[in-house]
Amino acid sequence: MKLKNLSITHKIFIVFFVVVALSTISFLHILDKTYEVSLINQGRSIAQQILIFRKWAASFGGIWTKDKYTPEIGYLMEFETKEGTAKAYKTGEALKNFGETHFYLHNPALATRELSNLSKIEYGWTFRVVSDRYMAPESKPDKWEATAIKKIKERKKDEYWSWDGNKFRFAKAIRVKKGCLKCHGSPEQIDPALLKAMRAKYGDNVDRAINYKEGDLRGIISVTIVPPSIIATAISLVDMWNIGALLLAFLVFWFFAKNEIIKPIENITKAAHDISLGKLDIDLGVRGLKEDEVADEITKLAIAIDRLRASIQIAMERLRKKK
């Protein structure tokens, strides 16, 4: 259908809906970008908290738990005492005698693995600490994580993120600090008892997880978030205020278009039709106005048509007088 076969009312409606459609697409694009930035910040926040926790645990040489550990994860070293006495801070006052007590050492890697299992249950997002030089089989990177490690090395940046299907995944580099060398430095830098405990737990895999230097990439914190879809998010943002504002915008637009465009053009069209039939005694509502005094183009057109009507009327009167 050609546009000239449509009324100006239909054209205005078409333009209005095209503008609304393009605005909606633009809004969804902005929402998508904002949504992604929000997910990046969420992933970054989670990773930073894990890094802080690992740094704290490493500063104490790991975390010792009393008479308890997670069986599926285990521990790195056990400390047994036949008699244990609890004492108060500062005063040294004896508080309780525990008798035979067992303490289990969880190095930062084991501790963060337990936190990961807890986060999966409690919060709906998960994280893993993985490395291309992994010691424990659980720390072996999956396909996305292997790509993340590769990209971080190539780009020499400490972050990488992308969508993996319907999952948003964020990777944060773990750089070797001085405290990390206690477990991942050269054999000479690692306590012999700790090295024996590591070999007892991880076997020959220990060899590929040591001999690091400060600043080396030890691995990544891999955060996985399964957010709702962008469409579901957009729908969740729509309420009665949004719908009311859209309807009000449409009514304002329609009121303006009807009274300032459609109706004046209809009047001019009717006037031109009447003039063509010789009906010159018509009022366009612009008598006394001058074109240089108005800015509205339709009003200027009406003034021009009215001037044409007046000129024809004068010409017709002159012809009558000559007769």
Automatic annotation (TrEMBL):
<dbReference type="Pfam" id="PF00672">
    <property type="entry name" value="HAMP"/>
</dbReference>
<dbReference type="GO" id="GO:0007165">
    <property type="term" value="P:signal transduction"/>
</dbReference>
<keyword id="KW-0472">Membrane</keyword>
<dbReference type="Pfam" id="PF11845">
    <property type="entry name" value="Tll0287-like"/>
</dbReference>
<feature type="transmembrane region" description="Helical">
    <location>
        <begin position="12"/>
        <end position="31"/>
    </location>
</feature>
<dbReference type="GO" id="GO:0016020">
    <property type="term" value="C:membrane"/>
</dbReference>
<keyword id="KW-1133">Transmembrane helix</keyword>
<dbReference type="InterPro" id="IPR003660">
    <property type="entry name" value="HAMP_dom"/>
</dbReference>
<keyword id="KW-0812">Transmembrane</keyword>
<feature type="transmembrane region" description="Helical">
    <location>
        <begin position="230"/>
        <end position="256"/>
    </location>
</feature>
<dbReference type="InterPro" id="IPR021796">
    <property type="entry name" value="Tll0287-like_dom"/>
</dbReference>
<feature type="domain" description="HAMP">
    <location>
        <begin position="259"/>
        <end position="317"/>
    </location>
</feature>
<protein>
    <submittedName>
        <fullName>HAMP domain-containing protein</fullName>
    </submittedName>
</protein>
